[in-house]
């Protein structure tokens, strides 16, 4: 009997080892926990989810192994972090019960909502509901956050995108209450503890529609053509204390999300737009990096510490660009000095190995309801580069400074911003492709590769192949992440780098501020969970980028719906075995030309080494970067999808001749 008992026990738990990973639930309801560096995902059956939902970070134990030892079956023992706690859906309400049925592509249980938490919801009403409690073997319990009473499809779409990517669209009452309790006035004792720079000329430079000004620049002349230039960053960590409700919510979100018609902020507006925003003609608390710089761009000295500043003026990028071009305007002498130094830093950066990629960004012109009226290409002009170079300088200097600090003879954990060398699997086919345009790469070292990239980018500027080589080059690059393991930042060419300059909208910057202050005060507290926090912030950053892409795609579809049936000059922006993507040249809107729509012309196959679809009979090639004419045939806002068809025009051969040519080859 004892042996039988022990065998049963071993079946229930075959290993004491726990794995950490992300639960992915299929449409059928089966779950798989994806664990980094594990050869195969761990199978989890629905009864073993233990309240976990799709996308949650979980801890799982192994309960069964296949005889070959490769496929493992597990059971979730802990939900470490939920991807999503708020959901869109509708109500099913009876006389003494209320259940909320979430709109979810993946299976999940209905949410029980107590009648006193309905907030006025009625049967079949649509709403956003937040899960507030979930005990094992019971239904989740929720509360109504907002009733969806309007027919505003845009409002629903934007919030749904945020929720699906795990970003709450409302702040909990405890967070708002805590932010509202923060004092507006700065205590004299706090000013006395800081370096007082209120008499030094200081200004901000931001987009015209910005409200959260988290950085400012100060400048004053010293002796011997040396300038003292300050990079002043809103001191968010003064207001957001560790483990406070504000801190917990900021960490959960980890980043603000910028959609075409709104910002979903990391911190409540009381902090982001009032207390911490470096608004003109107001005293503000900052964490600053102050440099002594010669006119030749040499850094003679620097100082890091807490300050109090007073911004004299708020500039927009357009206003500063006008001053740079005309050399006239308020504080023109100071701005021209700063711009001259910034351009020296920029040239030096590229000379030392930074890669000069220039991707095209667009923004939508919206009316008061959020409806897109047009598309504007964002230009990266010298006014933008001025701010960029001084922010890079501050970020690099802080990272270099902290990297030299040791505790027990070891470097202290720090959230570096790191960027690995290019992915070889992506790089090699790109190098072969670039050869066709006469560009050769030296692959002896990462530095040599960066130099080759810059030579190529300079050579293609203004040429037809510029767009395709830039886009493909960017795709060979690794993604920058946060990590305590410092491998440097390849794209920028920096050995040490961090994010220090945007704590209003990025949680890693708050972590950097706290650790830097500990170093300055020599009161270092080692955070053993810092790498875990870095991973979380990197994941949230990716989710924010996905939200922004999805929202931009929704606006593209919304904007293009009025043009169904029209033809557009386009560029092939991507290829796959099932078709190719085109981007309209004027509107910068992207959609798919399906392989099915090309069947009447030829049998096309994907040639990966050429980034092209090639016709088996005619040899007709659709290659990334090619200019084509495309007709818009469908615009589906719910799927955020544009469908195009390829249109033959006079630049090719006429349609009838092309078809005859294909048929002759087919007959042979």
Short description, anyone?
With 668 residues, the protein is of the alpha+beta class.
Account of the protein in words:
The protein has 668 residues and is of the alpha+beta class. It folds into four domains: 2-81, OB fold (Dihydrolipoamide Acetyltransferase, E2P); 178-419 and 484-549, no CATH class; 424-477, no CATH class; 564-667, Nucleic acid-binding proteins (OB fold (Dihydrolipoamide Acetyltransferase, E2P)), CATH 2.40.50. Helix content is 31%, strand content 29%. It is built from 16 helices and 33 strands. Strands 11-18-17-14-13-12-19 form a seven-stranded mixed sheet. The chain has a five-stranded mixed beta barrel with strand order 1-2-3-5-4. Strand 29 (604-607) and strand 30 form a beta hairpin. The model is unreliable at 1-13 and 664-668 (pLDDT under 50).
Topology:
Layout: H1 2-12, E1 18-25, E2 31-34, E3 42-44, E4 57-65, E5 72-81, E6 86-93, E7 98-102, E8 111-112, E9 126-133, E10 141-147, H2 153-164, H3 173-180, H4 188-192, E11 195-196, E12 202-206, E13 215-221, E14 226-234, H5 236-239, H6 245-253, E15 257-259, E16 262-264, H7 269-275, E17 283-294, E18 299-310, E19 313-316, H8 317-326, H9 332-351, E20 361-366, E21 372-378, H10 382-403, E22 406-407, E23 410-411, E24 416-418, H11 424-435, H12 446-460, H13 466-475, E25 481-483, H14 507-521, H15 530-560, E26 567-576, E27 579-584, E28 590-594, E29 604-607, E30 612-615, E31 621-623, E32 627-636, E33 641-647, H16 655-667
Parallel strand pairs: 3-5, 11-18, 12-19, 28-33
Antiparallel strand pairs: 1-2, 1-4, 2-3, 4-5, 6-7, 6-9, 7-8, 9-10, 12-13, 13-14, 14-17, 15-16, 17-18, 20-21, 22-23, 24-25, 26-27, 26-32, 27-28, 29-30, 30-31, 32-33
């Amino acid at each position: 009997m004892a042996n039988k008992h022990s065998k049963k026990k071993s079946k229930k738990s075959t290993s004491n080892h726990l794995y950490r990973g992300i639960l992915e639930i299929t449409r059928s309801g089966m779950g798989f926990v994806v664990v980094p560096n594990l050869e195969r995902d761990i199978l989890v059956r629905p009864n073993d989810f233990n309240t976990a939902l799709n996308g949650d970070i979980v801890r799982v134990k192994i309960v069964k192994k296949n005889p070959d030892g490769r496929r493992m079956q597990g059971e979730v023992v802990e939900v470490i972090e939920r991807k999503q706690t708020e959901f869109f859906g509708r109500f099913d309400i009876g006389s003494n019960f209320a259940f909320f049925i979430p709109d979810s592509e993946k299976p999940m249980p209905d949410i029980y909502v107590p009648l006193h938490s309905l907030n006025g919801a009625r049967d079949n009403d649509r709403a956003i509901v937040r899960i507030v409690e979930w005990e094992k073997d019971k239904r989740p319990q929720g509360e109504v956050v907002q009733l969806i009473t309007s027919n505003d499809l845009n409002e629903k779409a934007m919030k749904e995108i945020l929720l699906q990517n795990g970003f709450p669209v409302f702040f909990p009452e405890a967070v708002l209450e805590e932010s509202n309790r923060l004092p507006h006035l700065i205590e004299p004792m706090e000013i006395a503890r800081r370096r007082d720079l209120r008499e030094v000329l200081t200004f901000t430079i931001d987009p015209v529609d910005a409200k959260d000004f988290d950085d400012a620049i100060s400048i004053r002349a010293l002796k011997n053509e040396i300038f003292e230039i300050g990079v002043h960053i809103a001191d968010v960590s003064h207001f957001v204390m560790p483990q406070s409700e504000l801190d917990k919510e900021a960490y959960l979100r980890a980043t603000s999300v910028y959609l075409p018609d709104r910002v979903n902020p990391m911190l409540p507006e009381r902090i982001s737009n009032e207390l911490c925003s470096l608004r003109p003609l107001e005293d503000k608390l900052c964490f600053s990096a102050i440099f002594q710089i010669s006119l030749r761009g040499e850094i003679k000295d620097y100082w890091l510490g807490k300050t109090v500043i007073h911004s004299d003026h708020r500039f927009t990028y357009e206003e500063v660009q006008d001053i740079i071009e005309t050399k006239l305007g308020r504080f023109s002498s100071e701005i021209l000095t700063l711009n001259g130094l910034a351009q020296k830093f920029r040239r030096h950066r590229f000379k030392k190995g930074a890669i000069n990629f220039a991707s095209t960004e667009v923004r939508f012109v919206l009316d008061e309801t959020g409806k897109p009226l047009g598309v504007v290409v964002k230009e990266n002009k010298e006014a933008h580069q001025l701010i960029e170079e001084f922010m890079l300088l501050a970020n690099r200097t802080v990272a270099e400074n902290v990297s030299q600090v040791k505790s027990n003879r070891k470097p202290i954990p720090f959230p570096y911003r790191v960027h690995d060398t290019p992915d070889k699997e992506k790089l090699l086919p790109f190098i072969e492709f670039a050869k066709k345009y006469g560009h050769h790469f030296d692959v002896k070292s990462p530095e040599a590769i960066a130099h080759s990239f810059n030579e190529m980018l300079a050579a293609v500027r203004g040429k037809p192949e510029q767009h395709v080589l830039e886009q493909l080059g960017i795709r060979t690059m690794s993604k920058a992440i946060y990590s305590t393991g410092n491998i440097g930042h390849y794209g920028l060419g920096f050995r040490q780098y961090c994010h220090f300059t945007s704590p209003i909208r990025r949680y890693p910057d708050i972590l950097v501020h706290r650790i830097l202050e500990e170093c300055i005060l020599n009161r270092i507290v080692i955070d053993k969970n810092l790498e875990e926090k870095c991973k979380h912030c990197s994941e949230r950053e990716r989710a924010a980028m996905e939200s922004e892409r999805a929202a931009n795609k929704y606006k593209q579809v919304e904007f293009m719906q009025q043009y169904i049936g029209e033809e557009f000059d386009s560029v092939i922006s991507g290829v796959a075995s099932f078709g190719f993507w085109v981007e309209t040249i004027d509107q910068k809107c992207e959609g798919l030309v399906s392989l099915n729509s090309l069947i009447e012309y030829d049998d096309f196959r994907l040639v990966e080494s050429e980034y092209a679809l090639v016709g088996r009979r005619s040899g007709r090639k659709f290659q990334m970067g090619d200019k084509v004419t495309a007709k818009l045939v469908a615009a589906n806002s719910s799927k955020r999808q544009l469908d195009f068809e390829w249109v033959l025009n006079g630049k090719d051969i006429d349609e009838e001749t092309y078809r005859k040519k294909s048929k002759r080859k087919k007959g042979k």
